[in-house]
From TrEMBL:
Might have a role analogous to that of eukaryotic histone proteins. This is Histone H1-like protein Hc1. The lineage of its organism: Bacteria, Pseudomonadati, Bacteroidota, Bacteroidia, Bacteroidales. It comes from the Bacteria. Belongs to the histone H1/H5 family. HCT subfamily.
Length: 61
């Protein structure tokens, strides 16, 4: 789970940096990189949700 959180954190910071660059400077390439990062984040976040629910259910038992 720690490794997954590290991956999410890294991609989120990349996304934020590139999205800000597109917004502030009109950098189209940065916008493309931000969109790619958002696509890469989606499966990681779904995996986190699954692992988080499993951990919560295991503690409840």
């Amino acid at each position: 789970m720690k490794e997954l959180l590290d991956q999410i954190e890294k991609l989120t910071s990349t996304f934020q940096k590139d999205a800000a660059s597109q917004l502030d400077k009109g950098n189209k390439a940065a916008g493309l990189r931000a969109r790619r990062a958002s696509l890469e984040l989606e499966p990681l976040l779904k995996r986190f949700r699954k692992l988080s629910l499993e951990a919560a259910n295991n503690k409840a038992e």
